[in-house]
Amino acid sequence: MAQRVESFDLGTLGLTSGEGRALEFAVPVDELRFGGETYATGGDADITLDVSHTTTGYALRLRFAVDLHGPCTRCLEDADARVEVDAREVDQPGGDDELRSPYIDGSELDLRSWARDALALTLPTQILCTADCRGLCARCGANLNEDPDHAHEPELDPRWAKLSELKLD
Fold first, then answer.
1. Strand partners for 84
2. pLDDT tens for each residue of 113-163
3. Cα(36)–Cα(153) distance, rounded to whole angstroms?
C-alpha cells in the first residue's frame, strides 16, 4: 500500500540535473461540485508521480484514475464515471511566471491541490448513468429511460388559441 500524503518535499529526493524518479502515493481527493451537483471520489487516489530534475527546477507528471459517483446530468439517477488523469507541471525558478508551478512552494509540492485541480480539468462534459440516457421530459419531468414511449398531446398553436373559446351550437 502506498504512503498517504498531501504534500511532498522534492528536495528529499536528492536528484541531480537530468535525474528522475517515479514515486507512488495515496493522495486524498475531495468530492467535487460539478454542474451544481456533488460527486464523491471515494477518498484517496493511488497516484504515480514522475519527477525529473532539470538544470534549475523540476518537470513533473501526475497520473491517477478515480471513480466518481453522483447524479446523471440528464436524468438525475445514480451515475458512475471513471476519470483518468494525466497532468504535467514545470517549475523553473528564476524564469518567467509561466514556468512556475503554483503547486510548488520552495521544494514542497502540494499533491492534494494538484490532484484536485487536475481532476477538475479532466472531467467529462457530462456524467451519465448510461451512454444512451434519454433524460427527463422537458414538459413534465418524467424519466424517459423508464417510459421510452412517453408522449404528450401537442400544444395548440397560441395564434389559434382564441378560436378554442368559440362555442359551436
1. 65
2. 999 999 999 988 889 999 999 999 998 999 999 998 998 888 778 888 777
3. 32
Q: In which residue are the cell numbers 451515475 written?
A: 79
Q: Where are the strands (E) in 13-148, listed by range?
A: 20-29, 32-34, 37-39, 43-53, 58-71, 78-91, 104-105, 108-110
Percent of the chain topping pLDDT 70: 97
User: Can you give the residue ranges of every domain in the chain?
Assistant: 3-147
Phi-psi region of 50 (alpha: psi -120 to 50; beta: other; left: phi over 0): beta
| Torsion angles phi and psi, residue 166, rounded to 5 | -70, 140
- Euclidean distance between CA atoms 134 and 143, whole angstroms: 8
pLDDT digits (tens, 9 = 90+) for 58-76: 999 999 999 999 999 999 9
How far is it, in rounded angstroms, from Cα 159 to Cα 27? 61
Taking the CA atoms of residue 122, residue 128, residue 134 and residue 138 in that order, the dihedral angle to the nearest 10 degrees is -80
3-state SS assignment for residue 79: strand
Give the 3-state secondary structure of residue 44. strand
